[in-house]
Amino acid sequence: MDINSDLGESFGAWRMGDDAALLDVVTSANVACGFHAGDPAGILDTLRAAAERGVAVGAHVAYPDLVGFGRRNMDPTSRELQADVIYQIGALQGLAAAAGTRVRYVKPHGALYNTIAHDERQARDVIAAIRAVDPGLTLMALAGSPLIQWARDAGLRVVGEAFADRAYNDDGTLVSRRQPGAVLHDADAVAERMLRLVQTGRLTAASGREVAIEADSICVHGDSPGAVQMAQRVHAVLTAAGVALRPFAD
């Protein structure tokens, strides 16, 4: 199993998360590309730290929305969206090369991630952009979403992702952050929840119903309060249960 986190999201004097501490725990790092968060110098620092620890790096591409942290819905044209994704991957590839590592996968962020999970037009634009840069890149997508099959049909390798610190709806989608209880904070409960997911392929939705989730990576959001402790607890519980932790991308 892989554990990933969204990193490189600090901007100038504004600090977001503890990248160094999380990089000691996770096996994959989704690194901001400057559109929703991150500045070039900070992104480069995160990439260097990831390279030192042997953590796999992915491009955390987003809508151009610094003010909204990439969490506001947008409806760009296909021409715009494809160019935006190509631009972000390319920028991170350059910084990664300078840091002594390389971009192995792409994980869309925030509103873009949730939109393309079900919006076929925008999904195909992101898929086309990835293929235009490097068809060997893996796409990380919401487990159980239509995006997974669309990307596989287009020839991309896809990895399904589950969220340790987010509540789920009965259909396998994430509870909106606007709803109470959407973000989970109890590290022990989250870790046991993820162990059950790994062992059974199921988790309990906000309604109390059981939901089947087929995932090869677990995300702990780097900007969540207590993110480091939560990631450490998930890592410890899975390891103690004999779960091998390694990057999904080679």
Topology at a glance:
Layout (H helix, E strand, L loop, with lengths): L1 E6 L11 H5 L4 E5 L7 H14 L2 E5 L17 H22 L3 E4 L3 H7 L3 H14 L4 E5 L3 H8 L3 E7 L23 H14 L1 E3 L5 E3 L4 E3 L7 H14 L10
Parallel strand pairs: 1-2, 1-9, 2-3, 3-4, 4-5, 5-6, 6-9
Antiparallel strand pairs: 7-8
Helix pairs in contact: 2-3, 3-5, 5-6, 7-8
Keywords: ATP-binding, Hydrolase, Nucleotide-binding
Pfam families: LamB_YcsF (PF03746)
Protein name: 5-oxoprolinase subunit A
Give your account of this protein's structure.
The mean pLDDT is about 95. Helices cover about 40% and strands about 15% of the residues. The protein is built from eight helices and nine strands. It starts with a strand and ends in a 10-residue tail after the last helix. It is globular. β3, α3 and β4 (about 105) form a beta-alpha-beta unit. The strands form two sheets. Strands 1-2-3-4-5-6-9 form a seven-stranded parallel barrel. The chain has a two-stranded antiparallel ribbon with strand order 7-8. The chain has a single domain, classed as Glycoside hydrolase/deacetylase (TIM Barrel, Alpha-Beta Barrel). The chain is of the alpha/beta class and about 250 residues long.
Second CATH tier, the architecture: Alpha-Beta Barrel
> How many domains make up the 3D coordinates?
1
First CA to last CA: what distance?
A: 13 Å
Mean pLDDT: 95
The radius of gyration is 17 Å
CATH superfamily: Glycoside hydrolase/deacetylase
| Number of strand elements | 9
Structural class: alpha/beta
Might you state the CATH topology name? Answer: TIM Barrel
Major sheet: arrangement of strands: 1-2-3-4-5-6-9
User: Biggest sheet: strands, sense, closure?
Assistant: 7 strands, parallel, barrel
Subunit structure: Forms a complex composed of PxpA, PxpB and PxpC.
Keywords: ATP-binding, Hydrolase, Nucleotide-binding
Catalytic activity: 5-oxo-L-proline + ATP + 2 H2O = L-glutamate + ADP + phosphate + H(+)
Family: Belongs to the LamB/PxpA family.
